Amino acid sequence: MTRKQKRLSVIAGGLAFLGAATGLTFYALGQKASYFYMPADLTTASLQPGQRIRLGGLVEKGTIERGQGATVAFSVTDNQKQVKVTYTGILPDLFREEQGVITEGTFRPDGVFVADSVLAKHDENYMPKEVADGLKSKGVWQESKSD
Amino acid sequence: MVETGHFALVLAFALSLVQTLVPMFGAHMNNQKMMAVGGPVAVTGFTLTALSFAALAIAYATSDFSVANVWDNSHSLQPLIYKITGTWGNHEGSMLLWVLILTFFGALVAAFGRNLPAALRANVLAVQGAIGATFFLFILATSNPFARLNPAPIEGRDLNPILQDLGLAIHPPLLYLGYVGFSICFSFSVAALIEGRIDASWARWVRPWTLVAWMFLTGGIAMGSYWAYYELGWGGFWFWDPVENASFMPWLGGTALLHSAIVMEKRSALKIWTLLLAILTFSLSLLGTFLVRSGVLTSVHAFATDPTRGVFILCILTLFIGGSLALFALRASRLTAGGLFHPISREGALVLNNLFLTTATATVLIGTLYPLAVEAVSADKISVGAPFFNLTFGPLMVPLLVVVPFGPLLAWKRGDIFAVAQRLMAAFAAALLAVLVTALFIDGASVFAALGVGLAFWLICGALTDIAVKSGFGTVAPGVMLRRFAGLPRSVFGTALAHLGLGLTTLGIVGTLCFGTEKILSMHAGETVQLSGHMLRFEGLYPAQGPNYSEDRGRFALLGADGSTTAVITSAKRSYPVRQMTTTESGIKTIGFSQLYLSLGDEGTDGSVVVRLWWKPLVTLIWGGGLVMMAGAAMSLMDRRLRVGAPSRRRKSAGAVPSASLL
Fold it and tell me: How far is CA A102 from CA A130, B160, B389, in A?
């Protein structure tokens, strides 16, 4: 190979590498990014069975039920619709009734959302941003909701 | 005192403008006197910033609640150490720490850069001053930490309980020393572009600064990871949280820069690329500052959200990234290209390293910014988490780790891959043995887990092989070998140590992810539970009182084979009344390199408590590896050729011999 050919092959190799990485990245974005919904959005959303989503809203008052062992069930609401959620594990320290929460997981065929992670706010004046924005757009946001 | 601090900050801002303009015009007009202004001004600016920072720290230490910032983030009952660390446990204070470290690095250049060419030194200080000026203005205009309250409240609102930890004393200063440290590399690059030339002293200078910044950033990230691990009670060491990515991207970029700077220094090749990497690395630091400080992301790190701050930092970001890249586009063609090399050579290996690292940085960047971009152009809100990064970052890292041991053994200019492979036979055999032992003797080991352990051993043994080969192990008499070992340049040990640390971290990650076990259950006092061969008995909950919190401590006894208690592990639910916040203190018992980790959940109505337990094999190696990498960087820094002014002739006789004569 001449020097020019050598250089070209190195450049071609580099480009092929970058192309493969780019392809992989966009494939992964399509497959692995999870969308955020609030309960009322779900009627219009077309979800594949088993698709991972994040479901956010407020923990509905009086719906927290502690079951066997570490399983907890509660309803997430946006004051329009409710979704029943079950979760096995330790709830975040700031998980409370009528507080913003984001759960991540998949829907069971019977319509119950099985969460494998639950996030609540970090401190007393912080509401998950997605939840706050969602509530605002639905017109049910109240300023200074903190207790 | 508080007003003095504020005044010092305003003066420091004014001086940073002087530091920007005077030396730069001096360099432009070749005026020695104007160029010489940079040094003393940089040192004075640092002194004033330090004074300002001290004023705020004193206000915190003495709980002066007439200062709004102190009132918002402190409480008179807090232990003194958390009062002091609270200084940077908030937006304003952490920005002050940011500029303090920025001016510190400027002062270091002024102090140690006396033998730099005058024009280069003047331009470097000017660029450093310009970065400082924008951030001083940002603090004074949008984030003044010295604003007073009248009347002064009696009591403060307490520091966020998650931050009331020793981690806050260590993690942010280390992290900032790292990511602001890259500003020096940036300033050197922009100065080189302004002058339109890069000479030998440029390369000799940039490498140690990169090493210093990289060393601290490694420590800062490792410390942050360990802090999140024990403080949040989730048992994870890395969450691919955008804020973590914000510090990880400069680390990846800095690692690439570290390696390309070697090529530039030794072979004066890859000049333009190294310069670009230096610009990009600090740009990623600035981007990180924007992501964390602007409030576009919600996380523990985003202390407060104020849209004007976000816009301001975005302007700074655009100015410096856009400006430096425009300058690069205009001037890069003036720089002369360096030496040629064969693809299979040390240079080639380092280019491959750069290709992988920059691509990996790009995937992390895309994963971090994509949700923000999607939200900006549509109503959809998406999140990109661990599954995305495992699919993109993972496949890019594994091949890089596989080729790491080859790099340091290849000769400069043209290497012999087969000879290197032969030298690595022992390391390969050790890795293969590790794979077989894992697959055959550890229950439930998957093929991936076994290969992962093999990869870690390949890295560790590869690093040891590097040292062994370069000291002539097996080819010369033991006495000669010892002499050669002692005579190896420190940077050879530095490389080996850093790669060894990488291997240890890999081993820790593989061990924890592939062999860790986890149980969640509800326990009554007196019940026992078994996890990976460890027997634990729940002794019950005991209330306790801290200085500014009350807690319920869950005591667990670790039982020996005969049923006797060998250790007590305590996990607690803490309640901080001022912020009405609860935190979980995890209970951790280190056994060898592994840890038993448990955290308390909610109390049930029947007196039971939800408990989550993890067995985390080799988990401490994740951070231990980081410490070893830091030691590697420190070792490299002690290399005599990096001591500026060391005669370069001696460098040749000491440094070039091992690699050249053996291959």
Answer: 9, 21, 21
pLDDT tens string B145-170: 999 998 889 999 888 888 899 999 99
What distance in Å separates the CA atoms of residue B97 and residue B173, rounded to the nearest whole number?
A: 8
Q: Which residues pair with A103 in a beta bridge?
A: A55, A118
Q: Could you identify the residue written with the tokens 């507080």?
A: A99
Q: How far apart are CA B459 and CA B205, in angstroms?
A: 30
What are the residues whose beta carbons fall under 8 Å from the beta carbon of A85, sequence distance 6 or more? A55, A73, A74, A75, A76, A103, A105, A112, A113, A114, A115
> 3-state secondary structure string, chain A?
CCHHHHHHHHHHHHHHHHHHHHHHHHHHHHHHCEEEECHHHHHCCCCCCCCCEEEEEEECCCCCEECCCCEEEEEEECCCCEEEEEEECCCCCCCCCCCEEEEEEEECCCCCEEEEEEEECCCCCCCCHHHHHHHHHCCCCCCCCCC
Most A-contacting residue of B296, B392, B600 (CB-CB within 10 A), to test interface: B392
For residue B88, what are the CA distances in angstroms to B85, B95, B99, B220, B306?
A: 6, 8, 12, 15, 18
- Sort out which chain B residues have CB atoms less than 8 A from A6's CB and list them: 343
- ipTM for the assembly: 0.79
Q: Say if the Cβ atoms of B233 and A24 lie within 8 Å.
A: no
8 A C-beta contact, residue A101 and residue A120: yes
Q: Where are the alpha helices (DSSP H) in B143-199?
A: 167-179, 182-195
Q: Does B304 touch chain A (CB under 8 A)?
A: no
For the record, the structure tokens of B398 come out as 């594994």
d(CA B648, CA B203): 13
**What is the DSSP code (8-state) at residue B321?**
I
Best interface-test mutation with B: which of A5, A34, A117, A119 has the largest number of B CBs within 10 A? A34
pTM of the complete model beyond 0.95: no
Question: Which residues does A122 contact at the CB level (< 8 Å), separation at least 6?
Answer: A94, B160, B162, B298, B299, B300
Provide the token pair at B137. Answer: 């203005």
Cβ-based neighbour number of residue A42 at 10 Å: 17
Q: Enumerate the domain spans of chain B.
A: 1-164, 200-414, 416-515+620-662, 517-616
CB B619 within 8 A of CB B253: no
Going through B492-564 in order, the beta strands assigned E by DSSP cover 517-523, 528-531, 534-545, 550-559
The rounded Cα B598 to chain-centroid distance in angstroms is: 27
pLDDT 10s digits, A8-32: 877 888 888 888 888 888 888 888 8
Please tell me the distance from the alpha carbon of residue B49 to that of residue B69, in angstroms, as a whole number.
18
pLDDT tens digits along B347-356 = 889 999 999 9
**Apex A89 CA angle, A88 and A94, nearest 5:** 120
Q: Measured between alpha carbons, how far is A78 from A5 in angstroms, rounded to an integer?
A: 63
CB B176 within 8 A of CB B105: no
